[in-house]
Amino acid sequence: MTTLTPENAQVIELTRKDFVSDQEVRWCPGCGDYSILAQTQKSMPDFGVPKENIVFVSGIGCSGRLPYYMNTYGFHTIHGRAPTLATGLKLANPELMVWVITGDGDALSIGGNHVLHSMRRNVDIKLIMFNNRIYGLTKGQASPTSEMGKKTKSTPAGTVDFPVQPLSIALAAEASFVARSVDTHTEHLQETLERAGHHHGSVFVEVLQNCNIFNDGAYRDFTERDVRDDRMLVLEHGKPMIFGKERDKGIRLRGLHPEIVQLGQDGVTEADLLVHDEEAADPYLAYMLSRMWWPDFPVPVGVLRRIRRPTHDRLMVGQIEDARARDGDGDLEQLLVSGETWVVD
Amino acid sequence: MTTETAPRKDINVQELERVTIRFAGDSGDGMQLTGTQFTRTAAVFGNDVSTLPDYPAEIRAPAGSLPGVSGFQISFSSADIYTPGDQPDVLVAMNPAALRTNIGDLLPGGALIVNSDAFNASNLKKAGYEASPLADGSLKQFTVFEVPISALNAGALAGLDMTSKQIDLTKNFFALGMMFWLYERSMEPTLNWIDERFSAKPVIAEGNRRALKAGYAFGETTEMFHTTYRVAPAKLAPGTYRNITGNEATALGFVTAARLAGRDLVYGSYPITPASDILHSLATYKNFGVKTFQAEDEIAAIGAAIGASYGGAMGLTASSGPGIALKSEALNLAVMVELPLVVVDVQRAGPSTGMPTKTEQADLLMAMFGRNSDSPVPIVAPATPAECFEYAIEAWRLALKYMTPVIYLSDAFLATGAEPWRVPSTADLPDISVPSHTDRATFQPYARDPQTLARPWAVPGTPGLEHRIGGLEKADVTGNVSYDPDNHHRMQMLRQQKINGIATDIAPLEAFGPAQGDLLVLGWGSTYGSIRSAVERLQAEGWSVAHAQLRHLNPLPANTEQVLRSYRKVLVPEVNLGQLSLLLRARFLIDVIGFNRVRGKPFRIIEIKQAAEELLGEMAK
What we know:
The complex is a heterodimer of chains A (345) and B (621). Chain A has an 8-stranded mixed sheet with strand order 2-1-3-4-6-5-11-7, with helices on both faces. Chain A has a 3-stranded antiparallel sheet with strand order 8-9-10. Chain A is α/β, with parallel strands linked by helices and 345 residues long. In chain A, α1 (33-43) crosses α6 (186-198). Chain A is globular and about 95 Å long. Chain A starts with 32 loop residues before the first helix and ends with a strand. In chain A, α6 links the parallel β5 (177-182) and β6 (203-208). The model of chain A has no long low-confidence stretch (mean pLDDT 95). Chain A has a domain at 6-218 and 310-324: Thiamin diphosphate (ThDP)-binding fold, Pyr/PP domains (Rossmann fold), CATH 3.40.50. Chain A has helices at 33-43, 82-92, 104-110, 112-120, 166-172, 186-198, 220-223, 228-231, 284-290, 312-327, 332-336; strands spanning 54-58, 73-76, 97-103, 125-131, 177-182, 203-208, 232-234, 242-243, 249-254, 257-262, 299-306, 341-344. The longest helix of chain A has 16 residues, at 312-327. In chain B, the strands form 5 sheets. In chain B, strands 11-10-12-13-15-14-20 form a 7-stranded mixed sheet, sandwiched between helices. In chain B, strands 3-4-2-5-6-7 form a 6-stranded mixed sheet, sandwiched between helices. Chain B contains 20 helices and 22 strands. The radius of gyration of chain B is 27 Å and the shape is globular. Chain B has 621 residues and is an alpha/beta fold. At the A-B interface, β1, β2, α2, α4 and α10 of A face α1, β9, α9, α11 and α12 of B.
């Protein structure tokens, strides 16, 4: 294990290109995944972690190919199970920085159980879920995030399944870091990934990602440059929830419900607005934000929740250290003859 | 008896070589505990022992009902024994249901000890008896001892601050005390156990102590028993011994393997009968650095184990058949990425949920072929509870040396059965360590060791070896993703050759008996004891018969075909419908003869002996 010391400090002065592998990237031209890959590579130097200590673990789907393009350790596993391998990897070596790359089908359909449990255990993994609301690699079937009634090859009359809201699930699963960004909002995405990387504990980042082949324009209505300021809400910790090109709209709480208000109208001022608190001990505010969606509300992006909890690997190591402090390091010879023994001469 | 001063009545002492006792009662009656205590005592005394717990999957079936009967059979002997006995010589039946479900197995002339207090109208009805079997003459071929255990026990515990229910729960210790007297056993080990187990509950401890002593005293003073039985210590090889179940030996073997390999053990597991005890054992070895992870499901359990092995630890998972079925996709990933991994299958009777607490050997073909594509995985199978230790280490030796997942086939009989285990000296255990690859100049993710064909183990955290692996087909040497047709063929062949090559790196198949002859009885796994006993008897009768037990099922030892061809006929007893037979026929075109019974129970010696006699008789014609 290489740890950062003054002697090898120069080794980790890395740039994006240090994280580019020699493999040819094979996503469809125009895919949102290119941007996510680029922002991921750009964010890596920010962590000061030697690249041999970084591992990308993925499942199956278009997103699953990302580890091949990162010049770090990488493990392209099986459908939905990446969080389980990442959990075991962190148990084997808690020093590693482990990223899990997944998609809406991989994480929320076949792998839903593992997302739930890796998040609630606070396994120190950074799970990045590419949400294109479609199965892309299998050529266009409805996914668990596809909108009700969506017509796809597998649902020619429209899907009859209600979609899930990924961030609501992440919050219910007790993820200790929950955030959202957009593939094309490169600066915001890079910043979100950097904040995710600095968090210790279970990270769930949803990246709204465009599949230009099977579900083109899934988020166009609120992510396009000319409308996004009015239709998205950029969350900032400790700041009032203001949005709009003119920064003239905000979110106010009425009873238990959020509402959009116009600053300056009917005497509304910034003081009336909800103030974002990503560190709130209870998840109510974050949950409320996770339910806001265009066209009823601006779509929130940024960090919804970020709390501190002991990580799974540290708790496990702690138990082992306690046992060793109490009983001493295990003595094999003694272990084998433990219990009742008798001697035959 | 007329004298007041002679508490010891006139009794005969009879020397026996071997005794088989079955304790049977309600699943709430503590029969497993009673049997375990008797086993420990016999083992510490120096007898050879072999046990067969037989309990229902339901934790508490309705009291007194037939499905609720729990049994524990122990055979103990002054000579080497290999099985828990075909039929008990002594049956202790705590209620009518226990009598009804077990009496068919008791040897004619055997001793039947019943708790007569439990033979009331309600219990008789629940057991389906119209009239009490104690009164209708149906038990006349046995020596019946009717003991009012409940009442005697309640009397002994009178005055203690215990509820009548609590008092009733101690009656198994009364029965145990009686058996200790009958077989001249010391109460000390059990008294010590009671003190330790109930140290926080002094009243309960006292109750159990009194129950045990009262049972012993009853044996001593009653006019009922006229004989006690002496089974001398067995002449076991010199050494330090302990009594051990298969699951305990398996867990100890894995902890030992980790020490021998110099790596951490990471155990991913989801609770399942009869494998859960491995998790319970390993969870107590934290000061050995063992990390146990109770996963959300079977898939997560093996996923975590593979992730751990990728990280340089020894990833281990265990389950039973239904769980192994769930793990198959992930197991195939381990085949593709060629990482060391051990998967334990404690087989139970199936298909589907089947009979979770009963034994079977029917997962062999799943272990061989239960994955998509051609996906070779080495398979090892210990033959006795104590051997589970050695084969846990052997499984890891192969996994580490050949960079491959290995399947370890145990079964419910091995897992829960116990026998004395001669504890090895750690100095005699093999060094199974393998280095991780660190040299960047020579590193290629899928370059292979020319001898073993193992690829390098390049662990995250190692500078300069950053690389990507995954379930997609690998280009030979570089490990990059490849769809090249010729490369795929080459890789399929390489994966197969790597596993085939293990055949010369494992112990050859050994025949017990003549090196050539009329009949070879060939088994695998837990059938060892029954087969060995049957073959010994046949040999003593002068038949030309040998026994061999396969501990490696894939690949088979290199001399397997040669051994099989040294006999006119080969009989293959299996607790399945002929899985090893199928493999042997396919592989060697040898017309082996299967003997197959799937009753959820181990073979009886007599069944195998009869099957062999039939063949030997035909050949003699």
